[in-house]
Amino acid sequence: MTIWNLGSINADHVYALPHIPAPGETLAARSLTQGLGGKGANMSVACARAGGKTKHIGAIGPDGAWMADRLRAYGVDTAAILTLPGPSGHAIIALDDRAENTIIVFPGTNRQIPPAHIDATLAGAAPGDLFLTQNETNHQPEAAFSARLRGLRVAYAAAPFDAGAVRAILPHADLLLLNEVEAEQLRQATGQGPADLGLSDVIVTLGARGSVWLQGGQEHRVPAPRVTPVDTTGAGDTFTGYVLAGLDEGRPMPDALALATRAAALKVTRPGAADAIPTRAEAEAFHP
Ligand code: ADP
Ligand code: NA
């Protein structure tokens, strides 16, 4: 089947600095590293690297052609990525010697995707396909609704947390994925915990402590292997992409979670976002 991911595509500009600049301070960076990021792109890469047939729905500017090329190189179908006047979404990441960071995200074309393009693309989906989205684009609630009507299974990674988006999308979601912080934000915003939402499956990720899958009133804990973290950027995105690809293959959730846990642990040992997401062969061979 196919995984349709409506999501952001960002150019990550990572500036290594002796410390995070204070208000009013001017500071020279030691180095600049550029890579592919954005939660949407990361998840598409993870789905594809895990072996899932993945179609990304999104938009870039003329400055972002390299990002579509790179998505394609990682196995993502980019036919539904539009080029708009731009600029593309990007992130300015200040990273200090202690690995603390401050991030400015400019959504750019990620929030300008024409709704008619999204709807027309989803018209090509078939019942049993998967639909995935996050909170970094536009038109997600409507797209989730239309995907559901077409018989797709709807997965929603509620990140970055947005109370309005969550309220609008949850009624159309089958699977919700969120980290601990987002689970707490959900509680604050709705008064409901992840288990009280009436969804068939909820997965809460717990960083180095692994994850918990909530299903039918049951809690299944999945521990994470112990690794030495180098960069946790995109850990959750890698995990989500691998879970979706596993489900798309028809694997039971515990199997999908086991491989996703390995892939995400391997990701945190590598610097970078989408470019650092392991292939399936690497994830399967990883025994820390
Ligand atoms: P996010 O990246 O969205 O903040 P988490 O930090 O919860 O999400 O990480 C997602 C998943 O990545 C975790 O459930 C776990 O499987 C894996 N992971 C994250 N950090 C580590 C770590 N330090 N060691 C091993 N696995 C990790
Ligand atoms: Na993380």
Automatic annotation (TrEMBL):
Q: Where is the active site?
A: 237
| Known pathway | Carbohydrate metabolism; D-ribose degradation; D-ribose 5-phosphate from beta-D-ribopyranose: step 2/2
| Reaction catalyzed | D-ribose + ATP = D-ribose 5-phosphate + ADP + H(+)
Q: What is its EC number?
A: 2.7.1.15
Explain how, and how many, cofactor molecules are bound: Requires a divalent cation, most likely magnesium in vivo, as an electrophilic catalyst to aid phosphoryl group transfer. It is the chelate of the metal and the nucleotide that is the actual substrate.
Per its UniProt record, the required cofactor names are: Mg(2+)
Enzymatic class: transferase
- The Carbohydrate kinase PfkB domain covers 6-279
Q: What main location does UniProt list?
A: cytoplasm
Activity regulation info = Activated by a monovalent cation that binds near, but not in, the active site. The most likely occupant of the site in vivo is potassium. Ion binding induces a conformational change that may alter substrate affinity.
Query: Which Pfam family, any one, appears in the UniProt record?
Result: PfkB
Q: Where does K(+) bind?
A: 231, 233, 267, 270, 272
Q: Where are the transmembrane segments?
A: none
Checking InterPro entries in the record gives: PfkB_dom, Ribo/fructo_kinase, Ribokinase, Ribokinase-like
Q: Which UniProt keywords are listed?
A: ATP-binding, Carbohydrate metabolism, Cytoplasm, Kinase, Magnesium, Metal-binding, Nucleotide-binding, Potassium, Transferase
List localization entries. Cytoplasm
| Gene Ontology MF terms in the entry | ribokinase activity
For this protein, the record's SUPFAM superfamilies field holds: Ribokinase-like (SSF53613)
Q: What does this protein do?
A: Catalyzes the phosphorylation of ribose at O-5 in a reaction requiring ATP and magnesium. The resulting D-ribose-5-phosphate can then be used either for sythesis of nucleotides, histidine, and tryptophan, or as a component of the pentose phosphate pathway.
Complex and partners:
Homodimer.
Q: Which HAMAP family match?
A: Ribokinase (MF_01987)
Protein family according to the UniProt entry: Belongs to the carbohydrate kinase PfkB family. Ribokinase subfamily.
Indicate what this protein is called per its UniProt record: Ribokinase
Q: Which organism is it from?
A: Rubellimicrobium aerolatum
The beginning of the lineage is: Bacteria, Pseudomonadati, Pseudomonadota, Alphaproteobacteria, Rhodobacterales
